[in-house]
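Troubleshooting log. The previous structure file for this entry was overwritten by mistake, so regenerating from the original sequence record. Sequence copied from the archived sheet and checked twice against the printout by T.R.
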Amino acid sequence: RWNRSMKVFVEFYTDDISTLETFYVRTIGMTVTRRLADFVVLEAGAAKIHICDRAYLPDSLAWGGLLPKNGSGTEFCFEVNDIRAAYERAIESGYPIEHSLQAREWGKTDFRLVAPDGVYVRIASARHSPNVYASQELPL
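Regenerated output below.
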């Protein structure tokens, strides 16, 4: 059973902390809550991200080219109260939008970007209409 007191944060390892920090602050709207030379904490609502120097990535993951592109194959989703304001912020940041603002058949509106480290980032509204796929879901 899900532990309701559990919280989630994500750590990204990078060679360029500043570029990744700038993306999440200017484009996504997160706030820096802690900064060291090799570690930054960003927060927005319940979302929390740590950006760490790649030197701290465990050798078992980094050695031998196991991560050809950090972040590839990962999608990180943010759900926001005001999707239009989030979209305008992203446009104003000048960062390229991968997929523009669209209403989706699962009842949300979203847009997508690719962060500087290769993570696929989706910014979505809360559900505003029925999910056409809901009848296909298996019971829990």
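Strands lie at 10-14, 31-36, 39-44, 47-53, 75-79, 99-103, 109-114, 120-124. Archived copy saved in two places this time.
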